[in-house]
Hints:
- With 163 residues, the protein is α+β, with helices and mostly antiparallel strands.
- Helix content is 25%, strand content 22%.
- It has two domains: 63 residues, Leucine-rich Repeat Variant (Alpha Horseshoe); 72 residues.
- It is built from four helices and six strands, in the order ααααββββββ.
- β1 and β2 form a beta hairpin.
Amino acid sequence: MKWGVSGPGTELKIEMDERRVLGEVxxxxxxxxxxxxxxxxxxxxxxxxxxxxYLGDARALGAAEALSGLPATDAVTRARVVRAAQPLRxxxxxxxxxxxxxxxxxxxxxAAHPRLELAEVAEGAGRRAPIxxxxxxxxxxxxxAPGFGVEAEExxxxxxxxx
Length: 163
């Protein structure tokens, strides 16, 4: 985490034989990130919550919600982590040349959600697309939203109140 060097010299050279890139290396286990939640630095705790959310670990939501007193840029990231750690999740979003959005949606909760929508996180209303058929507990599916348009910066999956 932190280290220091003391001694004579004018340069520091780090030699490393590691040649893999992040896409070739699996992330650490969730328990390793959970241990980082006790770090003194808020940036480390935020990173831990972010990685727990990436791994789909249930501890992510509570960890992200517990973070407070963050600088403005970290507060924006925290809000994204809170949204990403919700039990209703969106992943693997693409938009084809015709403007149709395709995404994987997943219900990690123990409750069925019969009425759902994909919603763009944006100032104002943002774009929305209903999800036909809802989702049973602990299930997911790939959905398509024709005419959604250009890819959204961030999407959430939301339960829609009954009419």
